[in-house]
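sorry to bug you again but im stuck and you know this stuff better than me. below you get a single protein, a line of residues and a line of whole numbers that encode the local backbone shape. mainly i need to know what kind of three dimensional shape the backbone takes. anything you notice is useful, everything is just below:

***
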Amino acid sequence: MINKLLLEQLASQISGQLGSLSAGSDLKKNVQDILARQLNKLDVVSRDEFDAQQAVLLRTREKLETLEATVRTLEDSLKQKAQ
């Protein structure tokens, strides 16, 4: 879901640009509704969702690096035993 504050800011900016045509809060509300519908159609995620996924990816990368180091250590041990 798109951040409500962002929608309000965009709607205010658009309403401000239409100043002489402005019908007050009705125009702002209509612009906000249109923006919300259109932005929700886009294949985007919120900043919170992005940050959460980035944190998951970082933890996964750290685990992968740890596992790779463990495998290297085990492979080295096997090579030494084979000699």
